[in-house]
Amino acid sequence: MKRAAIYARYSSDLQTDRSIEDQVSLCSDFAAKQGLAIVAEFDDRARSGASIMGRDGVLAMMDAARDGKFDVLVVEALDRLSRDQEDLAGIYKRLTHIGVEIRAVHDGKADIVQVGIRGLVGALYLQDLAHKVRRGMAGVVRDGRNAGGKAYGYAPVPGKPGELVIVEEEAEVVRRIFADYAAGKSPREIAGDLNAENVAPPRGAFWQASTINGNRKRANGMLQNPIYDGRIVWNRVRMVKDPDTGKRISRVNPQSEWQEEDAPHLRIVLADIFAQVNGRKVRATSDKPMKKNARILSGLLKCGACGAGMSIKDKMGRVTRIMCTKAKEARSCHNTRPYVLDDIEATVVDGLRSRLDDPKLLEFYVECYNDEHKKLYAGQGVSREKARQRLAAAEREYQRILQLAIKGVISEEEAAEQLPPLREEKKRLTDELAVIPEPPKVVTLKPALVARYLRSLEELDAAVKSGGMLSLDVRRCVRDLVTSVTVFPSSAGERPVLKVDGYLSSLVDEGLSHRFAVRGGTMVAEEGFEPPTQGL
Ligand SMILES: [Zn+2]
């Protein structure tokens, strides 16, 4: 196994010491992934990277390299070694001569071309914003603060973005969910109980089984959320843009890229219960891909009385009837009526079509979304604006000094002394800004997308009526728009009342988080939509 040394540097006394730890942590993860054994760590705190002089850490590292103490030097980025191209090239030459290889987390293995480019980049200080932001967020995680969305059971701390406190009332519910599951109750039963007791759900109108057990691969259910076990996992998913729809969707990163940090003050569930539940969980679930001939709404239908799923009760000829699973299997739900699946499908498709066909209704949804988003953001705008102003001020000061240097009013030495702290300040503020949520984007409808969905729905309508096969595009269209269809109890002879929850984000221009999807209105079979309800 190759022996590695880590070198980290802080370029200015404007920053706290944390960034060295962030760098070391990143380098350690990187070294572990590359199968390197870390044998030494060197750092230079609060020194400018402009010159090698006075940098004890780098000199000690060079000594150790000459003594053959390690084979690979790991740095976060090459400009950590030096921002001076000659320095960097000098260090590179000497280390290469000794047979020590430089590997940078953000640059890969160093070679001469890269040292040249990176040194130049360092000189101009063009920062790779994405990496710096990631490092800033990794720092947030390392502090036990929360870099992702807020989980049920926690509240943000006003004025301290990223920090969370436990909400005891919700924590009680979390403990109960874990205890019930550990005792053998199914997520559906647990959701049903919570709904029956009118416990407010994290989102939507009902507790759903999926909120509780989620999807195993995405590990996005409450039962799998490591935060309840006093751990924060970061970098689990990344957002990518679907080239077809322009919609932002999340992808699961390989587990080796996940970052985890202990946050014992956020623990809600006892360690052994969490372990027991998750040990069991892995065996209990399996990811079933959608079957080729599956009905368009399969997996999306829910009972409006108990929150359980609906499943097929019987088939008579071509007529398939569905029923609340709890009513069917346990007789523990009063929604005992069987519903004809074709009717439900046709109602949903008609309803979606009439909704997409009515520009006023769509505009109203977009308005609701924008209003709601504004409310959510209220309060955070101030801290963002402040950070933005400080960043602008730092940028102006930086440009001012730079201009003075260019005009020759101040010497290069003076500029070399004054510019690095300002660069660090700019970088720090940029990182800070990156963890304050973005201001709400005012979304607008994308007519072309609406038209595409309408076409798909027409095809769907025809297919539903003729019992024909559905194209993949049509299936995707429905599943893009609809997240659940709730069937409310009605007596025989009455038309069933359906509630369709869906994602407005499929129809608007910019990537919206699914968390903020506008929930759909109620539809009554063959009577069209009732006025939509707004909410999250
Ligand atoms: Zn039911």
Automatic annotation (TrEMBL):
Protein name: Recombinase family protein
Highest taxon above the source species: Bacteria
Membrane-traversing stretches: none
Top-level taxonomy: Bacteria, Pseudomonadati, Pseudomonadota, Alphaproteobacteria, Hyphomicrobiales
PROSITE patterns noted in UniProt: RECOMBINASE_DNA_BIND, RECOMBINASES_3
Domain Recombinase: 151-287
Gene3D superfamilies in alphabetical order: Putative Large Serine Recombinase, Chain B, Domain 2, Resolvase, N-terminal catalytic domain
Stored SMART domains: Resolvase
SUPFAM superfamilies: Resolvase-like
Start and end residues of each Resolvase/invertase-type recombinase catalytic domain: 3-157
GO terms, molecular function: DNA binding; DNA strand exchange activity
